[in-house]
Specification:
Distance between the termini: 55 Å
Shape: globular
Oligomer: single chain
Structural class: alpha+beta
Strand content: 15-25%
Number of domains: 5
Largest sheet: 8 strands, mixed
Number of strands: 21
């Protein structure tokens, strides 16, 4: 209770976060929500109406409950308004639109991708439209010249982002929705025209111009390839040039936080600017000027680095620290963190679901809480050992707070995270200092060349170290948590931490029970896997992917192993399956014919049934049609007679409907993966 009294922003943050989560799972009627608001105001008013001191103490809970309900209701209302603001008006209406590009186009393998605000829609005249979409422009010379702020007239049909069709798949539609994006569209060559350029002032456009200017300084000094990609991500939050293999290396070694502009990066900027302005520490007025300059630099850096959740959080916190410095007051660090989180969530409640936001706050809070505890366990006697021990304690503390999230989102634990942090953090800090130095002296002929040379090879060394650590034996431990296990894991950390300070039995008991439940849930998943047999037909873009699962053995039919690994790996890890065994001819599978646990399955791979007939059609349990075939379903059904027809996502809508109608006429069960998601058959023994 004393801690809550000393951190008032935590008491505001908790009900606010609860309101954001409640909006996702609970639907309040308008009258019910406004009833909560009214009740909160009544309780707060009553608390101020009590004048007798003894009664004030007895009914002090009135104010707390009232404010709790008010913050809960406010979060719910803000979440509702935020969702309304991201709604897209003209879904599935093909026509002519006027749009404005609001992000720098990013080059993809076959297109240029950018965000755009939809301004108008032509329907017997131009009418206002509302919504933000992602546009994919077909690659050509004209599309490569598009700029932030360009206004276009496009012929397009906007569609909702596709919902996840595979088990445990990444929910891209919800992710885009939380980014304020309500639709996507592909713009082919010749279906758009540049009509002008917006001259209205835009902070995002100006920030993008500055970031591109700084990126061109790096290019000017021949920093290219992976070195440029890592340098741009590390210093300016520009991640478009990062290759998947390089991302995987940083993720597998526990160094992904280095590529996300966050507290460490903003902290370096704070330290550098504070050092350069140290001459202003002589008087109170100069200290105020110093703090103002530092805050301006912090937010300028936040703008040019992309305004991610992590960098905003860090800029807010260091701004409060700078403000407290000029007032000669020690900033209460926990309150500062909770205040920055509350302000961010008021601005955009969806930040709560941002992975970077979650990892950033969990890491910072964990370092502040656990690092002093770990640091006290050993007292080094010299500077080298002291530095080493501090790095060790910070790394362990950060890992304690972020491990539940990393196991939930990424299903892996970097076994060499300590080695990574001992080497990569000092190296990345050196890179940031050299980058700042290069940007400052880029106009000086010889000094800038030397600085650019040192910077390029420092980044090369950083990448080399990361890849080397990744290639060490058993560098990654693959383990995953579901949402229930993640909750109980965090509960165990909180309660056991509380026991460390209070030495009371209750938090120890709850913490141990939470750990036990986490382990039991893991055992439950193993048990379900070891006692189950399944057939799963996944939703692939172009190919058929089928798993035949016998307990924890995962036999996979696929014509594209890279795609099936991408879409199903998370599900396989969470279900505790062994590594996939890709099917060749076996005693139960041959050339598309499968006899698995008494089920007869045919995976139609090509047109081998075309123009074939038989007097007695083969009886099947399941017929799977995919691989972008264009079948004449009547010819197929003259050869085989399935109990159920499963049509893959790669089959066009026209052919899917044709197959559906044929199945309906012959009373064959029909399943469309494009409409209903992956087909999962649980086989009972």
């Amino acid at each position: 209770m004393d801690y809550l009294q000393r951190t008032p922003f935590l008491r505001l943050l908790l009900p606010f976060m609860l309101g954001i989560v409640a909006y996702r799972f609970v639907e309040f009627q308008s009258w019910g929500l406004w009833t909560l608001v009214g009740l909160s105001l009544v309780l707060v008013t009553l608390s101020f109406g009590i004048r007798i001191p003894k009664r004030q103490f007895q009914f002090r809970w009135l104010f707390g409950c009232g404010f709790f309900l008010y913050m809960f209701s406010l979060a719910y209302l803000l979440s509702s308004e935020n969702e309304k603001s991201t709604a897209f008006d003209q879904l599935h209406q093909k026509g002519i639109y006027r749009v404005e590009i609001v992000s720098a186009p990013v080059e993809k393998a076959k297109s240029y991708m950018c965000k755009a605000d939809v301004l108008q829609f032509y329907n017997s005249g131009w009418k206002p439209a509302h919504g933000q979409a992602i546009l994919y422009f077909q690659k050509d010379k004209s599309a490569s010249k598009l700029l932030f702020g360009d206004r276009l007239m496009v012929e397009a049909e906007f569609a909702s982002p596709e919902i996840p069709l595979n088990p445990d798949a990444f929910d891209y539609a919800t992710y885009l929705k939380r980014q304020g994006i309500g639709a996507t569209s592909y713009i082919s060559d010749g279906s758009w025209q540049l009509t002008g350029h917006s001259n209205a002032f835009s902070i995002r456009r100006e920030a993008d111009k500055w970031r591109n200017y700084l990126l061109n300084i790096y290019r000017k000094f021949n920093i290219q390839g992976d070195e440029f990609a890592v340098l741009a991500a590390l210093t300016l939050g520009y991640t478009d040039d990062l290759q998947p293999d390089l991302r995987s290396s940083y993720s597998a070694t526990g160094a992904m936080h280095i590529l996300s502009v966050s507290g460490m990066h903003v902290g370096v900027v704070y330290v550098v600017i504070a050092f350069l302005l140290s001459f202003l520490d002589k008087s109170q007025k100069k200290k105020i000027l110093k703090s103002i300059i530092i805050i301006l630099f912090l937010w300028a850096y936040a703008f040019v680095s992309g305004m991610s959740a992590a960098v905003i959080r860090a800029a807010l916190m260091f701004s409060f620290v700078a403000f407290a410095y000029c007032l000669e007051r020690k900033s209460q660090i926990y309150n500062t963190i909770f205040m920055s989180a509350l302000l961010m969530l008021i601005y955009n409640p969806n930040f709560l679901y941002d992975v970077g936001f979650q990892l950033s706050y969990s890491a910072v809070l964990s370092i502040i809480f656990f690092q002093p505890i770990i640091d006290k366990l050993y007292k080094p006697t010299n500077k080298i050992s002291r530095f080493t021990w501090e790095m060790f304690s910070v790394s362990i503390a950060a890992q304690l707070g972020t491990t539940p999230f990393t196991l939930y989102y990424f299903q892996q634990f970097p076994n060499y995270f300590l080695l990574t942090n001992f080497i990569a953090i000092p190296l990345s800090s050196l890179v940031i200092y050299l980058a700042i130095g290069l940007l400052i002296v880029s106009w000086l002929p010889y000094l800038s060349i030397a600085m650019g040379f040192l910077l390029k090879w420092s980044v090369w060394l950083l990448n080399y170290v990361i890849v080397t650590i990744q290639n060490l034996p058993d560098s990654v431990w693959h383990i995953s948590l579901d949402i229930r296990q993640t909750f109980f894991f965090f509960l165990a950390i909180f309660c056991l931490s509380g026991y460390y300070f209070s030495k009371k039995f209750a938090p120890l008991f709850v913490g141990l029970i939470a750990l036990l439940i986490t382990c039991l849930l893991n055992i439950q998943t193993y048990y379900q896997t070891l006692t189950s047999k399944r057939i799963i037909v996944y939703a692939g873009q172009k190919n058929v992917h089928v798993s035949f699962i016998n307990r924890n053995m995962n036999f996979v039919y696929s014509t594209d192993s890279a795609e099936i690994e991408r879409i199903a790996k998370t599900y396989w890890q969470r279900q505790k399956f062994e590594k996939p065994i890709y099917l060749g001819n076996t005693n139960w599978y041959a050339d598309g014919f499968v006899c698995f646990e008494g089920r007869k399955v045919l995976i139609l791979q090509d047109d081998f049934l075309k123009k074939k007939t038989t007097q007695t059609p083969m009886e099947l349990d399941y017929l799977i049609i995919g691989n972008r075939l264009k079948p004449k379903i009547s010819q197929i059904l003259d050869c085989v007679h399935p109990r159920k027809m499963i049509v893959d996502k790669s089959i066009s809508r026209w052919y899917t409907n044709d197959i559906r109608n044929a199945c309906k006429a012959r009373k064959i069960a029909f399943y469309s993966i494009a409409e209903q998601g992956a087909y999962i058959l649980n086989i009972k023994e």
